[in-house]
Structures are given as C-alpha cells and as structure tokens.
C-alpha cells in the first residue's frame, strides 16, 4: 500500500534541499551553543558516587527496588540491571560532608545498609556482591573514552564507505552521523536531561541506525546513477529517495514503536536510553534523506564517479 502511494506521488525532496540544509545548520548551531553554555547533565555513571552491586535469589522488579529506596530516603538512587535479571547495581551520590579519604569506607557502610534495607523489603534473598566508591576522575575518564569511541567509530565508517562506495558518499555519511549526534546531545544539554552510560550506549546505537539507513539510500543512488541514461544528479537522487521511502518509513515507524514501549514500560532506568534513541531515529531518518544526499550533491557527484571500472582487455574479449 505504502509502495503504491509513493509510486503515485513522486516527492521532490531535493527541491527544498537548500531550506533543509539551512534548517540543519541552525539546529546544529543551537545544539553547539546549548552544549557550550549548559554542558551535559552527567549522571552518577560519570560523576563521583557509590556503586552497590546486589544479587537476588529471584528475578528483580526494578520499580519495586526504586520504591523501597525512595521510601527510605534514597530519592537520588539510580537502579539498573547488570549481568542477569537477578543482579542490580544501585548508584548513589556521595555524601558531601564525608572527606575524600573516607569515601571508600563510607561506601562499604552504605552498601551494607542498602543490602539490609532491600532484603527486608523483598521476599527474595539479597546478597551484597560489593560496594565501591567511584571518584570523579574515573567518571571523567569514562566520558573521555566514550567520546573517543564515537570519534573512532566515525573514522572507521568513513574508511569503510570510501572503499565500499566512494569518498563523496563517505563524507556525506559522516556529516549526517555527526549531525545526528550533535543535535541529540544538544537536546540533552538544552533540556538538562540526565546523560549516563545507558545514554552513551544509545549514542553508539544511533550511529549504527543512521548509518544503516544512509547506506540503503546511497546504494540506490549509486545503482540509479549507473542504470539511468538520462537525468540530472538531482533528479536521480530524487528518484532514489522515493524508491527507498517506504522502506525508510516502515523501519523508522516499527523502531519507534519498540522504543515507545521501552520508554513507557521499561521504567526509569531505561528512560534515558529510550529518549536518546527516539530523538536519534527521528533525526537519523531526516538526515539520511536530506543531509547525506545534500552533501553528495554539493560535492558534485557524477555518473563517472560511480561507474564500474573496466577490466583491462574486456573490450577485446567482447569483440566477435
């Protein structure tokens, strides 16, 4: 049904490419300003705090653990699963009144208190696996390594697409990915949403999702440049975008359905992950249509750039 609608209504995507490019530039600028002025609201994963690791004899219900902690004065605690559905990690902010040298001992005491509290509020047997103090230095290293990981991913992607397609396509894909990440981070900075390890994982997932969508579009553009004998680059890009539109919309819609379920049913621990990915999917769908394709056109991609290389002696082999 969707294929038929798209076939009957050829959308002139590139007709508004300049407007779309200007809108993207404004959004990226606003995101950079928000990051510069507000910075990211790092969660306890990236700041100093106490990490308490617990094991339950049965599967853990995260919402029940959150309720038990909040009812006993631990309103700022963050509870996440790790390892299995019976293991949890409770993250707590440090007590500012305790000296830095005494934080490790304080962490041990807090861990024992949390284990006893949760054991009393649950029918399961709760075992304390460990309680550690995470310094701000460790959090800064995590943030630095996460940022470095994203930069390395972008570099490897650029090399891959240069080999798989062509350098102009690689530039378009990397610009689109950077566009998606900067805007997503800017929204987190603008609205002071918490940025934790789950959110960092979502950023890496955004790279994968947006790249997959961009490669599908790029592959169709390359195919049409080789197959179509007539038409300008803008016309061939428009045809390619219309041909892949139904696939793009269906993939984005089904992904958003899953993410909406995680957002509303998954609990507080997965909210940051779901919000980041929802933003990333929407922005990534837009960028695969307007940003990557726009960059390719601005770099003056031609049919000659994408033609298959002629093997030496091929013409002689085809001669009668």
Quick recap of the structure?
The protein is α+β, with helices and mostly antiparallel strands and 320 residues long. Helices cover 65% and strands 11% of the residues. The radius of gyration is 25 Å and the shape is elongated.
Structure in words:
- The chain has 320 residues and is α+β, with helices and mostly antiparallel strands.
- The chain is built from eleven helices and six strands.
- The protein has helices spanning 2-8, 17-37, 62-70, 103-120, 136-164, 167-190, 197-227, 233-265, 271-298, 303-306, 314-318, and strands at 41-42, 49-56, 78-82, 84-93, 126-134, 194-195.
- It has a four-stranded antiparallel β-sheet with strand order 3-4-2-5. The protein has a two-stranded parallel sheet with strand order 1-6.
- Helix 1 (2-8) packs antiparallel against helix 8 and helix 7 runs parallel beside helix 9 (271-298).
- It starts with a helix and ends with a helix.
- Residues 1-8 have low confidence and may be disordered.
């Amino acid at each position: 049904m969707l294929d038929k609608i798209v076939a009957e209504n050829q959308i002139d995507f590139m007709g508004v490419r300049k407007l779309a490019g200007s809108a993207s530039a404004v959004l990226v600028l606003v995101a950079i300003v928000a990051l510069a002025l507000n910075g990211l609201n790092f969660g306890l994963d990236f700041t100093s705090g106490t990490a308490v690791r617990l094991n339950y004899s049965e599967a853990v219900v995260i919402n029940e653990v959150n309720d038990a902690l909040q009812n006993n004065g631990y309103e700022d605690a963050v509870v996440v699963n790790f390892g299995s559905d019976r293991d949890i990690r409770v993250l707590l902010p440090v007590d500012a009144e305790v000296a830095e040298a005494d934080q490790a001992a304080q962490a041990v005491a807090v861990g024992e208190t949390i284990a006893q509290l949760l054991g009393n509020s649950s029918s399961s047997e709760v075992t304390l696996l460990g309680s550690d103090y995470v310094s701000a230095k460790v959090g800064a290293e995590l943030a630095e390594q996460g940022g470095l990981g994203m930069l390395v991913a972008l570099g490897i992607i650029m090399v891959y697409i240069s080999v798989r397609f062509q350098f102009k396509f690689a530039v378009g894909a990397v610009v689109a990915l950077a566009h998606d990440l900067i805007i997503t981070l800017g929204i987190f900075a603008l609205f002071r949403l918490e940025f934790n390890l789950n959110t960092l994982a979502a950023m890496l997932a955004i790279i994968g999702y947006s790249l997959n969508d961009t490669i599908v579009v790029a592959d169709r553009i390359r195919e049409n440049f080789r197959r179509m004998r007539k038409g300008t680059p803008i016309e061939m890009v428009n045809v390619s975008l219309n041909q892949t539109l139904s696939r793009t919309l269906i993939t984005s819609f089904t992904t958003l359905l899953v993410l909406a379920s995680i957002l509303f049913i998954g609990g507080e621990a997965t909210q940051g992950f779901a919000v980041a990915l929802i933003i990333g999917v929407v922005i990534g769908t837009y960028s695969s249509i307007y940003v990557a394709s726009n960059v390719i056109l601005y770099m003056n991609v031609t049919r000659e750039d994408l033609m298959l290389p002629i093997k030496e002696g091929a013409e002689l082999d085809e001669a009668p």
